[in-house]
Amino acid sequence: MEFCERLRRECDGIWEASFRHPFVEALADGTLDEDVFRFYVLQDAYYLSHFAKVQALGAVKAKDLLTTQSFAKHAEATCSAELALHEEFFTMLGVTPEEHAAFRPAPTAYAYTSHMYRAAVEGDLADVLAALLPCYWLYWEIGERLKGAEPGHPIYDKWIATYGSEWFGELVNEQIDRMNRLAEELPEERILELGERFRKSSIYELNFWEMAWTREQWETPEMEGVR
User: Fold this and answer.
1) Catalytic-role residue among 82, 193, 205, 216
2) How big is the chain by its Cα radius of gyration, in Å?
3) If you write DSSP's letter for every residue of 106-138 in order, what string do you get?
């Protein structure tokens, strides 16, 4: 069994929960509240801006120029293609420049990006990719699963078409192949470390849907006797 197949099997329950999350199901059938998707898009744009930076850190961690070039291309693709998609959604959803400038990441979005940066600071290229890969791979699987869906909503139709597209699948498979190569002949201790980064990112992906669904906010619990 190749490394990525092992990771996917170990995290199958987490991924199935993502596939069945009310956010994903409502997006697929076109009943998702636009205000919920609006919240999601703002958070996802923040997340992707940092995802691209971690991809760039992967380019720095690479040990050969071809891999550096590849990660640099992936970072550029995130900046130009995916963020352009969000800009289109901003226009369609009426997100103003002032609103975008005043944006604050929700706790889950902040924690997820912090997790990716930690992998990049603490580890090598394998650690970086283990933390990044669930985002690539899960979205592709969702796009593939929803190809037959007909939300009947221009934004949701575009979202499904993007993540179920051939070009996105090629990017995902490239990174899966690279992750398998990086894991070859590693000791079990390192395999477990990389698997834990992958698992945490898979959990954060699930939590991201819930964050958007509930429009998660920063809250300070009230404590008796504390003013």
Assistant:
1) 205
2) 18
3) -HHHHHHHHHHHHHHHHS-HHHHHHHHHHHHHH
Active-site pick, 4, 11, 82, 135 = 135
Per-residue pLDDT, 226: 47
Tens of pLDDT along 92-119?
Answer: 999 988 888 889 999 999 999 999 999 9
CB 158 within 8 A of CB 40: no
Are the C-beta atoms of 111 and 211 separated by less than 8 Å? Answer: no
Taking Cα atoms as reference points, which of 193, 54, 204 lies closest to residue 128? Answer: 54
Both tokens assigned to 151 = 């939300």
205 is an active site residue: yes
What are 124-169's pLDDT values in tens digits? 999 999 999 999 999 999 999 999 899 999 999 999 998 999 989 9
